[in-house]
Amino acid sequence: MRTPQPIPRDASQQARDAWATATSAPVTTEPASPPQQPNRSEKASRLGCVALEKSYRKGDLVIPVLRGVDLEVTSGEFLSVSGQSGSGKSTLLHVLGLLDAPNVGEVHCDGRRIDNLTEPKRDELRNQNFGFIFQSYHLLPELTLLENVVAPLAIRFSTLRWWSQRKAIHERASEIIEKVGLGHRIKHRPSELSGGEMQRAAIARALIGQPRVLLADEPTGNLDSATGQEIMALLASLNEVQQLTIIMVTHDERIACQAHRIVRLAEGRVETVNQAA
């Protein structure tokens, strides 16, 4: 039985509203300051959870999805979470990334508990610390590739700060787009991109905010084998060169084995933890 997923917040509408605000005339006064570069030098615990439990209700039926999951991911680690459909992989990723809240247990990031923060604080931390890659890309169809990539910073910054740093933001976005191999597509809209190109665009968007953790939910799930391997090579390079911490959910064992470590879930519990080959 497939796990019922929670109704997500309308992130697409939030991005659209932020983009409309950011591209209108500035109306506030706030001193600009550059985004902080995260320190990844220590191999300390980056993200983890303790005794995590999560259930969903369908009518009168309560469906347990996570049943006491303990997990620790160190700085610079590339971890894959595998398991059959309905094992709780995506739910675990959503809870770790503050897209959903646990019923029981705690989530910790850089040594502090984060699941019990107020909603505005959770939103701020999620925007500044996590980059998300989804199987279905979630690009806004009316925006160009460049506009999609800079959208998270349109959400993060005030209108004045956006306008004062707009040139620098676009330059950084263009550099990232070049690095993921899409420099020739920068003015194209999602409908003009292939599946692999849309996933590369989603990766660029996830990187624009200089996240501490990249959370990837089935990043190769909609791609053919060759294109999937290209995406995996890109993720491996980001992890090796930038020491970016990556947590990737996948049902494909061939993909899972390309991470440093594999955590396998079964019926909402950690079944095994293995070093990848």
What does this protein look like?
The chain is of the alpha/beta class and 277 residues long. The chain contains eight helices and ten strands. The protein has helices at residues 11-22, 89-96, 119-129, 145-156, 159-179, 195-207, 225-242, 253-256, and strands at residues 45-58, 61-74, 78-82, 104-109, 112-113, 130-134, 213-217, 245-249, 261-266, 269-275. The strands form two sheets. A six-stranded mixed beta sheet has the order 6-7-8-3-9-10, with helices on both faces. Strands 2-1-4-5 form a four-stranded antiparallel beta sheet, with helices on one face. Helix 1 crosses helix 4, helix 4 crosses helix 5 (159-179) and helix 4 packs parallel to helix 6 (195-207). The longest helix is centred in the middle third of the chain and has 21 residues, at 159-179. 38% of the residues are buried. The model is unreliable at 4-9 and 25-41 (pLDDT under 50).
* DSSP summary: helix tally: 8
Q: How many runs of DSSP E, i.e. beta strands?
A: 10
Query: Kindly state the mean pLDDT as a whole number?
Result: 86
Sheet of most strands: 6 strands, mixed
**What helical percentage do the residues reach?**
25-40%
Q: Give the DSSP E fraction (strand runs of 2 or more residues).
A: 15-25%
End-to-end Cα distance: 31 Å
Low-confidence stretches: 4-9, 25-41
- Major sheet strand order: 6-7-8-3-9-10
Shape: globular
Structural class: alpha/beta
**Strand and helix order:** HEEEHEEHEHHHEHEHEE
Please state the CA-atom Rg, rounded to the nearest Å. 19 Å
